[in-house]
Amino acid sequence: MLTPLGRLDKYISSENIFNRQMVARSLLDTLRAISEDERECVSVLERIDRLADDSEPTVRAELMEQIPHIAIFCQENRPSIPFAFSKYLLPIVVRYLSDQNNLVRKTSQAALLVLLEQELMERGDVESLVCPVLVDLTAPDSSDDVKTEAMAIICKVAPMVGRDVTERLFLPRFCEMCCDSRMFHVRKVCAANFGDMCGVVGGEATEELLLPRFFQLCSDNVWGVRKACAECFMTVSSASSPDVRRTKLSSLFISLISDPSRWVRQAAFQSLGQFISTFAGPCSNTGQYFRDEAQWSGSQTHRADAVCPPQDSVDVAEEGGGEQTAEVLSADEPCCADADAQKCLPEETQPSSRAPAQEIPEQELFNSFHYWRTPVPRIAPELELELEDRRPSAPALDRKQLQELIENLEPHIDDPDVKGEPRGFIFEMQGTNKNSCTTPERERECVCVTLTTSTGVRAGADRMCVSLSVCVCVCQWKVRRTLAFSIHELALILGDQLTAAHLVPIFNSFLKDLDEVRIGVLKHLYDFLKLLHQDTRRKYLYQLQEFLVTDNSRNWRFRSELAEQLVLLLELYSAQDVHDYLRPLALCLCTDRVSSVRWTSYRLVSEIIRKLSSCSSLLVSFLGELVEKFCHSQKWSGRQAFAFVCQLSIEEECLSLDQFSEHLLPPLLQLASDPVPNVRVLLAKTLRQTLLEREYFLSSVNCQQVALEHTLVALQTDVDKDVKYFASVHPGSTRLNEDAMSTTSSTY
């Protein structure tokens, strides 16, 4: 009979640790019970402060887990208890950040992040109370664990508190920790979060303060630190100016690619495509670029990501010009080659019709390159739109710089540690490109490079297919596995014609490969087949059954993935094809030895019912087959499966209620006399929670209404208490499919 506050007072001073933990766990409920009384709410908050001094770490940790929930309550009831969070809760969070117990410390760090994400803390409180404590925890005299944890939390807090606070309070200590010679764990944390810190403080602080530290971390004597640098290289590059990317970061990245540690090299090659994408401008055809920050506009006349070349220079770029073209352009980055390219410019930075003569170096004013050819004729807008997808984008680096990058990458093409990476690359270099070089002189100037990363650069499609064919022939399965997982992305890039000519044979060879390779094809089977022509796609109907055979019969996840893909494939084929080819596979998977495969297959069966509902003859045939194979099965698991399929068909509206009532309801009601209680339990749930939720089954229009009522009465008087319960009550919070899974998966 104690009041909520009296109960709190009774157990808060208990000698039993579990009682005090219970107090911490029930604080929110206590506050909700007395929320209308401001005085009692303040009394509870005062007792929270008393509980925070508990000597038992588990009690303190339990209290800290409740702080974010209590803070939300205080925010919702702010008019009645103003300043509750700042006065009572925030000091506890700040104090626990330096707690001696590891569990309490980590719980407070997690609570702090939640409070910041939910914007429950005033900015002034964060700056004056939280940030100084975090900085103090990274002092040289702090323990190693505390210092590492504090630096990690600083890196997560920095984006939330913004640039000003980060530069004033966090940046000096972050730079100092990057050079901590005693603790490599701290340096590794700094390296892993370096890109986020660069993004917060902006370009100027990045180049002046952070990049020198980044160079030191990239040459750290611990390979884990260098690996962390390689993983965040793209974000550091996107926060830097174009000149720094070319002159400094490119050579630094080459050193990571050539690192003695295989783990560093792998991480660097995984980041290669992302790093290259930071060189692209917004008007390039790759579709992937990073905007430079607005701060750079103050130090440069034109922003690299917003300036397009004059129209006269566009013609030169389209013709495949090299170094000299780059020198004529007034921007650092290549821009779009369309006649309407100026639409991408801000109004205040629209270029004039011709670049000023003083911007062109004197030695370039009179050379053969500017005057040897006739101007390219103006392309009609309609034709230009048609050719836009076929036109290769201008290289972001000039020829000399790109060739230097390629020469540094070439020794690593055959590195076995790199070939198997999921984001590996296919590399090819040829001396000429006759599509873009129109004269012998310019043919010698052209260097054709095909570099395909996971981001999908659309260039050199034919040569890319040749490279892929070479990869298929490699006795290293990791290389083939990499391609199998990404062949659907390549098909999306190449289009249906090139895919049918080049990728379909490769895809077919993967179907007969090792399971480690086949799983890559299977996981994206729908994504690949939907890109093929209907006639080509239909040929694979005969090969789907091959996925039922695996190298290891215990590899049940392979069959589960097949069931999930078959659900997606239903939309690609006609009802007749589904009935003839996919139906037998579904019925076979429904009898799998592993319950997870079977439950996925039951959903597949319900979707097949939906697909066949448009053709009454096929539907009736399939429903009759389900009744024969499952409802009349000798195994109780088959009869239970029939009840589950019936439930799914109604809940997912896979067929009309009239069709269900005619073909599935009579055999379903026969399961009321099944000797296995598990079957009757699922039947009771299906009737009570699914069928009786529909007005159709309660009205006299339904010819099975009487039989349905008699079956329900019989189940309500069943000898099994679970059957009786689910037939009599309707648990509103429980869905049938979830409940059925939890009830039967352990025994089924």
Automatic annotation (TrEMBL):
Statement: the UniProt record of this protein carries the keyword Metal-binding:
no
Q: Which UniProt keywords apply?
A: Repeat
Quote the InterPro entries the UniProt record gives. ARM-like (IPR011989), ARM-type_fold (IPR016024), HEAT (IPR000357), HEAT_type_2 (IPR021133), PP2A_Regulatory_Subunit_A (IPR051023)
Family matches, as Pfam families: HEAT (PF02985)
Q: Which PROSITE patterns match?
A: HEAT_REPEAT
Q: Name one GO molecular function term.
A: protein phosphatase regulator activity
Record field: transmembrane: none
Q: Which PANTHER family match?
A: SERINE/THREONINE-PROTEIN PHOSPHATASE PP2A 65 KDA REGULATORY SUBUNIT (PTHR10648), SERINE_THREONINE-PROTEIN PHOSPHATASE 4 REGULATORY SUBUNIT 1 (PTHR10648:SF8)
What is the name of the protein in this document?
A: Protein phosphatase 4, regulatory subunit 1
